[in-house]
Design brief:
Blueprint (H helix, E strand, L loop, with lengths): L1 H40 L5 H8 L2 E9 L12 H12 L3 E14 L3 E13 L6 E15 L2 E9 L1
Parallel strand pairs: 1-5
Antiparallel strand pairs: 2-3, 3-4, 4-5
Helix pairs in contact: 1-2, 2-3
Length: about 160
């Protein structure tokens, strides 16, 4: 009976350590994602920063930006579509800043990051000045160590 109890306590201890390791790993993924995402939006961002960001995503990544994009479908060319869209806006900011407000992890499958960001620049299509400040929440679904779904919400 004591041997069974010791074995059970040992397994609980191992699972607790594993859970803490998973949480730390997910927090590192979240922090890295935020830093790389911010770098891809900076005024001096180049294709290098863009590719660093895209390297974090699965090939079939889905992207939903409520209320603008309500479709949460994933497509085989999801990363390619994001590359095309982000390249269009690359370098459009003359100013950009972001501050991480909160970071949440959900076992090894999801991350939520809440941040404030502000930007100024010229819209590449309309050539009109753009300026905004907002608080965002991104929920990132993780599969095989990559971001498979991005869901963005405004506060």
């Amino acid at each position: 009976m004591i041997a069974v109890l010791i074995t059970a306590l040992g397994l609980l201890s191992i699972n607790g350590v594993q859970a803490e390791d998973d949480k730390a790993t997910m927090q590192q993924i979240a922090q890295h994602y935020f830093e790389v995402m911010v770098a891809s939006q900076a005024p001096g961002a180049t294709e290098k920063e863009l590719e660093n960001y895209l390297a974090l995503l699965s090939d079939d990544v889905g992207h939903q930006h409520i209320p603008y994009e309500t479709d949460d479908s994933r497509h085989p060319d999801g990363k390619q579509s994001m590359r095309k869209g982000m390249t269009f806006y690359l370098g459009a900011h003359s100013e950009y800043s972001a501050e991480l407000l909160n970071l949440f992890t959900f076992n090894d499958t999801a991350i939520a990051i809440r941040y404030t960001h502000s930007a100024k620049g010229i819209h590449p299509q309309s050539n009109q000045p753009v300026s905004y400040t907002s608080i965002m929440m991104e929920v990132l679904e993780i599969e095989d160590g990559k971001v498979a779904m991005i869901r963005k919400y405004h506060e």
